[in-house]
Amino acid sequence: YKNEYMGMNRIYGVDKSKNIATGGSFVFKRGCKYEIPILAVLIQFDIAFNMLSLNTMLGDIRLGNKKVIRFHKILNVHFTGQDDLNLYYDYSMDAFMKSKTKIEGMLLKNGIIPD
Questions:
Q1: Alpha carbon distance 37, 1 (integer Å)
Q2: CA 39 to chain centre
Q3: Distance CA 51, CA 32 (A)
Q4: How far apart, in whole angstroms, are the C-alpha atoms of residue 86 and residue 65?
Q5: In angstroms, rounded to a whole number, what is the distance separating the alpha carbons of residues 47 and 38?
Q6: DSSP code at position 83
Q7: Which stretches within the chain are classed as H helix?
Q8: 95: pLDDT strictly greater than 90
């Protein structure tokens, strides 16, 4: 965005034999537009499912991070459990493909990605 680094996330723990990996470590610049991390999530899942040919992504969200939990509900992730700190989920390529158009439309509307 405007040639400025806004943050980072990663895909790790890739297990090609099980077609699975974990996504996370989301760190973004304070004050960046809220759509930037959403775009990063979209890119992360697109890379995992369409470039790495994975079937499932795993992740965790801190329980206090209500906005991120709400966003992942919009994505229709499958919540698998929780502990004292985190809510855990898995996310299939099929679920991503169903949500992708909605998320892209949201980003287009806000001018984050070009037409």
A1: 11
A2: 8
A3: 27
A4: 9
A5: 14
A6: -
A7: 35-46, 66-74, 93-109
A8: yes
